[in-house]
Amino acid sequence: MLFSELASFFSRLEETTSRNALVEILAELFGKTPPDEVASTTYLLQGRLAPFFKPVEIGMGNNYVADSIARAYNTDRAGVLRRFDRLGDIGAAAKELAEESGVAPPPERSLEVSSVFNCLLEIAGISGAGSIEQKVQALSGLLTQLDPLSALYLCRIPVGKLRLGVGDPTILDGYSFAKVGDKSLRKRLERAYNETSDLGLIGATLWNHGIEAVDALSISVGNPVRPALAERLPSAEAILAKLGTCGVEKKFDGFRCQIHKLGDEVRVYSRNLEDMTGMFPELAEGALHQVAADTAIFEGEALAYNPLSDEYLPFQETTKRRRKHNIADTAQELPLRLFTFDMLYVDGENITPLPYTERRERLGRLIRPGDTLLLSEERVAHEPAELLEVFDDALQGGLEGIMAKKLDAPYQAGARNYNWVKLKRAQAGELQDTVDCVIIGYIYGRGRRSSLGVGALLVGVYDPERDVFPSITKIGTGLTDAEWREVRERCAPFVSEEKPARVESLLQPSVWVEPAVVIEVLADEITRSPVHTAGKGEGKQGYALRFPRLVSFRDADKRPEDSTTVAEVITMYGQQGAKPVPA
Ligand code: AMP
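^ thats the input. predicted complex w/ adenosine monophosphate below
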């Protein structure tokens, strides 16, 4: 396929405000894509050159992209940046100059998608002395061979601003519609996605070898597995009634990490499947010394912990480790420990189908004693009192609650179900748990708040079935001035002129924001609401959070698709009558 044709599809996707239309356009696109370009087209749709977990970066910011544009269209960096300032989009600046310069060829003489993709991969691979000059030159060379619309999308990719608003489940639906005309393949594709996290791999397998080959894709070292997640129940009694005798552990509030070890190679992946190996070197080092297997995949929660005082540091402290500079110094000041709690794979064997007790027992044998990797303590509870003892112990240590685990459950990648159940401390008159919401818009402030630029936030939750973000509440109080400013700064790159395609809201904020910034919100209650669209069906009201307040920014470890789901909100609504566990 010509890159100019792909660019026209991008343009149609960008203009669409309906999720169904997104799927239709994607199905049309994949219907026309040759099998050997399905993977590259998929990554490009995500604005990337590789799956999310592979840190392949082009390594060019606005200034260098501007240099490439200037060189391609015979102008200078300042001229390009002036247009960029006026248009707010480096791609639009490139398009204008391409149109005016007369250098750009017509769309039908544009390059193939695979040529553009490979060239971008080469640019990403250039390093060392003189690399910037080579990158600028290579990108400008590409631009001179592309039409104006292609130039627009090409220039957005290095600066991370492609933003087509297409989520992973939407791409899976696009595959299914392209292949069979409906979404009947979605479940099978999703299973493969949960175990490999690589959409391009799934697309290429489907196009080249068929759906049976996709069914054969499975967990492997080097591909992060989408994590299993926990449900909520309101009390120890409810947990025992649901799970029977169960394992109980403290719930640590840090970064969830999935460690992959392949011989001397160790990789650390975050909950949202990012490669964190460089940021958390002591965990990789710890795994090399303490893991008694050649290959293994296991999970734990990483947090700053003081073993002398048995003190767990709060998330706000641990989150300081999520940084790109001075890593060695901060690792010294705030070393992380990994409280390991589950295991998925060892020496060639996928052990996710085994019951939890057996995986746990193997984990005990996998982790050698040492300072960095610790086994999370586990107790088997038969009675509520036993469960509450662990709960009290957790609160004493400054933690937020416990996790209960069903003893005979397999590890189900990407699933949130009652195999794991969390029980958190709650104050009377508050919801039992916080809700992770994504910002979808904001409303300008009045009076004193007008200087902050934001007066209230419109936030949503996630509906994974339909891959949309319906609204659930407005947050207008409880933020400090600094937090309002921070909100505005974090949202700035995602501001959208129109309602983003995957956002569902009856309310019209002053400014729409693409779903990207995740915040943890505490509320008093969940109510039914005619105004909010979360859980709203035909003739049925939606759900809303009452008296919501910001607890923390969670975009360090959560993607918008990791927000609380509509189904969870409905379950939490149903549990509200139950007596909460006292603080
Ligand atoms: P939440 O993010 O509130 O849904 O809680 C689930 C998260 O708790 C998991 O994704 C883990 O990051 C974290 N967690 C903390 N302690 C444990 C534990 N002992 N077992 C499993 N997950 C844990």
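The chain has three domains: 3-156, 229-424, 435-575.
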